[in-house]
Request: fold
Amino acid sequence: MRYEAQRAGLEPELVLGLIQVESGFRQYAISKVGARGFMQVMPFWTRVLGNGDADALFQPHVNIRYGCSILRHYLDMENGNLFMALGRYNGSRGQSAYPDAVFAAWKRWRFQPEGAAGRRQIAFFCGQPFISRCRVAGAGWSVSGGRCRVALLPAHVPSL
Reply:
C-alpha cells in the first residue's frame, strides 16, 4: 500500500483513511453501484487502466494501484484541491460529508509514537490478502510468513 501511495504522490495515511471510509478494510466489498474492493474502484476503470478484468479489483495490489492512480488523476484535474478530488473519487463532488469523513480518518492514521494508547497493529503481507494475525518484530517486518508493512490502526475500528 505504501509503495502505491508514494508512487502516486499520495500520503500512505491518506490512502488508509480513504480505504477505511470506502470499504472498512473489506477486500471483497461491493457497493450498491458496483464499486469493488478496498478502495471501491468502479469496474469501468479496468478498461481505462488495465486489461478490462473487473475481477482483478478484488486483488489488493490491483485495487490499491488503481485507486491511488484514480485519486492522483482527480487531484491533477482539481489542481491539487484534495476536497474536490475526494468528491470526484466518491461521485459526490461539491458535497462535504465524504471528504470530511476521509479527512477525519486520515488524521487518525497520522503517525503517532509506537505504543500510543488505544492503537493496534495490523499488516499487509506482500502479494497476499489482508492479514490481521501477524506477529510483528521491530522495524515493521514479520517474524514469519514473509515481509509485511505495519500500520497503526485506530482503536475504534473493529478488529479485522
In short: The first strand starts at residue 119 and ends at 125. Residues 119-160 have pLDDT under 50 and may be disordered. Helices lie at 2-7, 12-23, 44-49, 60-77, 82-90, 97-109.
